[in-house]
Amino acid sequence: MSDKQDPPGRDYDWLYSSQRGPSEEDPDATQAIRRPPSNGSGQGQHDPSRQSGAQSGPPHYPPPSERQPEPTRVFGLQPPPPADHPAQQQSFGGTYSPQESQSPRFATPTSPQPRGGYGPPQQPPQGRPSPAARAPRGRQRNWWLRGLFLVFLAWLAFLVAVPLWAWSQLTQVDAEPSGNRPEDTPGTTYLLVGSDSREGMTEEEQADLNTGDAAGARTDTILLLHVPDSDGPKLLLSIPRDSFVAIPGYGDNKINAAYALGGPDLLVETIEQATEVRIDNYLEVGFGGFVDIVDAVGGIEVCPTEAIDDPKAGGLKLDKGCTEVNGSEALGYSRSRAFKLGDITRALHQREVITAVGEKAASWQTVVLPWRYFQVNATAADALQIGADVGPLDVARFAWAMARPGKDAERCVVPYSSLGQETTAGSAVIWDDEKAGAIFAAISQDETGSISCRPQ
Length: 456
Prior knowledge:
It is a single chain. This protein has a domain at 168-450: Aminopeptidase (3-Layer(aba) Sandwich). Helix 3 (131-169) packs parallel to helix 10 (370-383). By secondary structure, it is of the alpha+beta class. It has helices spanning 13-16, 48-52, 131-169, 203-209, 257-275, 287-296, 327-335, 343-361, 364-368, 370-383, 392-403, 433-444; strands at residues 89-91, 94-96, 171-173, 188-195, 219-227, 235-238, 244-247, 251-254, 281-285, 300-302, 308-310, 316-318, 323-325, 384-387, 410-413, 416-423, 426-431. It starts with 12 loop residues before the first helix and ends in a 12-residue tail after the last helix. The protein is elongated and about 165 Å long.
C-alpha cells in the first residue's frame, strides 16, 4: 500500500522527517517508538488529521521532562500457556488450539535422501530383516566356510604327510651292480621282483599260505616295466623265473638263482647282461607283503580262463570267469603252475594281479577314505624294498604306470623256443634269441611302438 493511501501517523513520522525535534540536543540518542498520548482511559486520542490524510504541521514532541519510559517490546515470543490449558498456536488469522487427533498441518523433515538431507533414520521395509538381524546369519555362514576350508587344508596335509611318513619307513637295498653296465637309454625301465622270502612270516602264516619252509629267497616274479619318453605304449615284459642264462661269476643257471646267490645287485647285473637293457629302478615285494597289499585295497578281481584246483598253491580253487579274491587267494593265483604252459600262464596271471592291485590302489576310494589311504601307504611301506638310488618320484611314477598302463600297453613274455629243455640246471626255459633280441633292442631305443607280443 502506498503512502498516499496510508500516510504515516505520529508514531512513525520520525522515520520520514529530517527534523530531529526536541531531541536535537542529543543527536546520538536512539529514537524510540512513541505511543500517542493516552487520554486516561487507555485509548489513544483521536487525531482528525489521520482520518483526513492532511498534515497540520510538524509533529509535536513533549519535553524531555514529561517523557515516560516505554517498556521494551519483544516480538515473536509468547508466554507459555498454563499447564491445564492446551497449547495455542499462532497463525496469520489469530490463534487456535490444535485437536489431539489432528495431524500436523506442516510437512516434517523426511529421512535423508540420496542427495543429502536430514531427518530420522529410515525404517526398513516390512517383511525384510534389518541388517542387524541379518548379521548373525552372515557370520554363521562365514564360520561354516572357514570350517570347511580348515577341513580341506587338513585333508591336503594328510594326503602329503602320510606318503612322506611311509617313505621314511621303506627298506632300501643295494641293487646297483659294480661291473660294466649298459649305457643309459631313453625312457625309464623298472625291475619289479616278487621274491619267495618268508622273512617276517610266522609258521602259522607259512602253513596257511602253503609257502613251504625253504631257506633263503628266490624270485617267483620278474617283471620289466618300461615307461617310454616317446609316444610309444608302456611295456610290461615278464621274464620266466626258469629262464636259462649266464650268471656273472657263477656260470649258466636258472635266472632266479641269481637272487639266491648274490641278492638284488647280482640279479640286476644278470638281467642287464642277458638283455643289454639298463635297469633304472629296482623294487621288491615278498610273500607276506603281497598278501597284505591286496587285502589293504579291499581285494581284487581276477579272471582265469579255466578252472583252477591246485593244492600246491595254498589249495586254490577258482571257477572259470571273473571273481573277487582276497590276499591269500591272489597269491595262490600268482604262484600256480597247474596249466599247460606252466610258467608262461603263471607270468600272465602275475601281470594281471599286479595291474589289478595298482588300479585298486589308485581308485578314488583310496584317496577319499582316510583309513584306507593310510592302510595302503603303511602296508606298501612295510612290504616294499627299493634300490638305494630310487627316489619318491620314481616310486610314484611306477605306481601310476602300473595303475594306468593304458589300453594300448603291451604285455609280453620274453619269446622262447622251449619251455622244458633239459640243462645243467634241470628243465629250463630257452629264449628265442632273434625274437627276444628284437624286443630288447626296441626297449633300449625307446621304440616300444614297434613291439608286438604274441598271445600267451
